[in-house]
Every structure is written in C-alpha cells, then in structure tokens.
Design brief:
Blueprint lengths: L2 H4 L9 H10 L17 H10 L1 H11 L13 H32 L10
Helix pairs in contact: 4-5
C-alpha cells in the first residue's frame, strides 16, 4: 500500500554531515585481481562477482557450524571423514546450481520471489 493512497505525506531532508560521518565509519576492504585490462573486468563487475560468492560462503558456514552435530555422524576412519566432506560439498554444489537455474528462469520471465525478510 502506498502512502499516497492513505493520505499520508512524508517530507525529509538529508543531513549531509551525518551521512559523511557514517560513510567514514564504514569499513573498507580490498578486492584484488590479476586482470589488468579494465575493459575486460571493470571495478563494478569485480565487486559484483565478489558479492555473488556469498551464497556459496553461506553454505560452507553451515558446514562449519558447531551446532551441526557432526559428532553424531559415526565414522571409523579418516577416509570416511573425507568422503563425508566430499558428499557435503557435492550437495552444496547441486543446491547452488539449482538455485542459479531458478534465478535465471525467473530473470527471463521478469519475475522475482521475495526472501524471508521481504527483499
């Protein structure tokens, strides 16, 4: 529901000094690449590619979580631990490929699905 439909009017004024102060507080990080030609990989594209890695990182964060109760999985040998890690990594790969395919199809159709926080 839009505010105009409800009869509300919102007025605001940006306080540039507060905005600049908050910008200075923000952290900085460096993204490095060995691609020197900006025509091949722009700074914006590099940042986009970096941010796209976050979905995979969330999956690995799940694997590292101490509440995963990995102790409840009984493995007798280091070889079985290795196989378990490979299987979990393979599951993450399949999950991310499926997610990517769904997103590509939604983009083709011009549709979007909101997540849990309505974004």
């Amino acid at each position: 529901m839009k505010y105009a439909e409800c009869g509300y009017e919102v007025k605001y004024q940006e306080n540039q000094s507060i905005i600049e102060l908050e910008k200075r507080k923000c952290g900085r990080f460096i993204i490095a690449t060995n691609v020197m030609d900006e025509g091949e990989l722009s700074a914006e594209e590099m940042l986009k590619q970096y941010k796209n890695q976050q979905s995979c990182e969330r999956g690995f964060r799940f694997l590292k979580d101490p509440f995963l109760l990995i102790k409840s999985v009984y493995v007798k040998s280091p070889k079985r631990v290795e196989v378990m890690g490979i299987l979990m990594g393979l599951c993450l790969l399949v999950y991310n490929i499926g997610q990517r395919m769904i997103r590509q199809e939604l983009n083709k159709r011009g549709e979007k699905i909101r997540n849990q926080v309505r974004k």
